[in-house]
Amino acid sequence: MATALASVREIEREVAALRIAPGSDVPYQRTSVMTHTAWVPPEWVEAADDVLAGLAERHPSRTIVLVPEPEQEDGLEAQVDVEIFPSGEGRQICAETIRIRLCGPRAAAPASVVQPLLLPDLPVFLRWRGVPSFGSDSFESLVGIVDRLIVDSTEWPELPGSYAQLSGVFERVVVSDIAWARTSRWRRQLASLWPEIGNVERIRVTGTAAQAALLAGWLRSRLARSVELEHEPADHLEAVEIDGEPAPFPPGDPPPPSDLLSEQLDRFERDRVYEEAVRSAST
């Protein structure tokens, strides 16, 4: 088992050492296109590991996984992994993963640990697992140093109330929501029903609370009027009814979680349609 590292300096030294090819004094060429930071409370660690395992080759990056444990004694414990993937014609992709347990007061000031580890001149993404602790020191410190915040409001138990808090950060950081991405096939399908759908008064969604709220918010914002929502809980978006009439099921299959996160890591611009849907969902 790798030795736990207790400081940012030790982490930097370990990354540099692991990037040296065995039997050589020449480091692997860094191929990172971003710094990918993930805030992962202990209950989300297993799910996060499953998703991250499918990303390394598609998005070579320095990934910094932060596991907050504020109830533990003050300090940090880190481990570093460097994976090398062949990329054709003798080239290689180098992916660095730094896992850090932030214990005690360190959990309230993650930016002081993350900032020295950011790769210069590359975008910084933050994936926040679970409900962001809006207004907390930990949330505010990280939002202040990243270019994009990625959430999945499917993970949030109190909807649509939390959307009001989320909309409060839209002017400070670009926000992506994986729950919104999961509705894309259905939004295209519903848009194809124009102009008849322009008179909709009621939408019934069989799916997660996030999918139902976002689809209703999207319709309200696009039509600029009230649309009543009826929600039938389900683990996936299974059906949509418009004024009691079933909407045609969209073609294709829903993408796996790693593909959904990968798609968000390819986006840099604000999604104004999403932002308007969130604001309308929270009213």
Describe this structure in words.
The protein has 2 domains: 8-146, no CATH class; 181-281, no CATH class. Helices cover 29% and strands 24% of the residues. The protein has 10 helices and 11 strands. It has helices at 8-18, 45-52, 111-114, 137-143, 161-167, 178-181, 184-191, 209-223, 257-265, 272-281; strands at residues 35-39, 62-69, 75-86, 92-103, 124-128, 148-151, 174-177, 202-207, 228-233, 239-242, 245-246. It has a 7-stranded mixed β-sheet with strand order 3-4-2-1-5-6-7, sandwiched between helices. It has a 4-stranded mixed β-sheet with strand order 9-8-10-11, covered by helices on one side. Helix 5 (161-167) links the parallel strand 6 (148-151) and strand 7 (174-177). The mean pLDDT is 89.
**Which structural class matches the secondary elements?**
alpha/beta
- The radius of gyration over CA amounts to 21 Å
Mean pLDDT: 89
Structurally, the number of domains stands at 2
- Estimated share of beta-strand residues: 15-25%
Order of helices and strands: HEHEEEHEHEHEHHEHEEEHH
Reading side by side through the largest sheet, how are the strands ordered? 3-4-2-1-5-6-7
Low-confidence parts, pLDDT < 50 over ≥5 residues? none
Shape: elongated
The first-to-last residue Cα distance is: 51 Å
What is the total tally of β strands? 11
Query: What does the main sheet amount to?
Result: 7 strands, mixed
What's the tally of helices? 10
